[in-house]
Amino acid sequence: MKDVTFGQFFPAQSFVHKLDARIKILLSIAFMVAVFMVQAFQFMGFVACLLFVLVVTALAKVPFGKVLRSIKGILFFIVFSAVLQLLFNKNGTTLWHWKFITITDKGLLNAGFIICKITLVVLGASLLTLTTSPVDIADGIESLMYPLKWIKFPVHEFALIMSIALRFIPTLLDETDRIIKAQKARGANFESGNVFKRAKALVPVLIPLLISAFRRAEELADAMDARCYSGSKNRTKYKKMRLTWRDAIATLVVGGLITGVVFLNITGFLAVVL
Q1: What average pLDDT is seen over the chain?
Q2: What is the DSSP string of 109-142?
Q3: Which residues contact 274 (CB under 8 A, 6 or more apart)?
Q4: Residue ranges per structural domain of the chain
Q5: Is the distance from CB of 26 to CB of 257 less than 8 angstroms?
Q6: pLDDT per residue over 170-188, tens digit each?
Q7: Which of 102, 109, 117, 179, CA to CA, is 20 to 30 A from 19?
Q8: pTM for this structure?
């Protein structure tokens, strides 16, 4: 459970940490768009995106191993998506055939394509949560969604829900780890047997976890009510968000990355066509 880094904040004094939360959210979305813009025939775009992640990780002073561990939680999904591409993509030259299983060069290429895309998107999202506190993320989302107030959308309440959800991800993971260790001390076995036996063994973990989650939610609601919290009123903020020269540099760098990916796609497409 400690390997799950999504939702965890890594405090540090770095260039990336000092960026405005709104800019980091928008640039993270732009980075994901750049990743999805990379075409299957142009892996140089993935190399550029990977170099960008490495540079941002170094500037953020976050251990790369901590960022890389964010993939562990979705490793099964990555492998499953790649296997689907290998088994069901019949286009291209056949590389290996056995009974009903046929692996082609296009299927192998698309499998690597899917792995690169999902991995880079998860790394980008993990960098956002590692370098931005949940409170700053909530404030950034609220500021970006401010125009929706004109149509009576509860922007502040939505941002508060996002903030609480991100804040309680590591808390619930720690609680799950504690319950599993307590159940193992009582003789529970979570590692042997087939899939159904393992799923059944998780029932003694899920019930205490749900009870603990509802208890924490009730305590939080009571604390907010005792402090006369009301999200619908015009609330002031202690910390004002302001754009600085760092945000301008970061925007130019990400804009350059997207431009480079588009250029690589165009040149790669022309090379294939011609």
Answers
A1: 79
A2: HHHHHHHHHHHHHHHHHHHHHHHS-HHHHHHHHH
A3: none
A4: 1-154+243-274, 168-231
A5: no
A6: 778 788 888 888 887 877 7
A7: 117
A8: 0.75
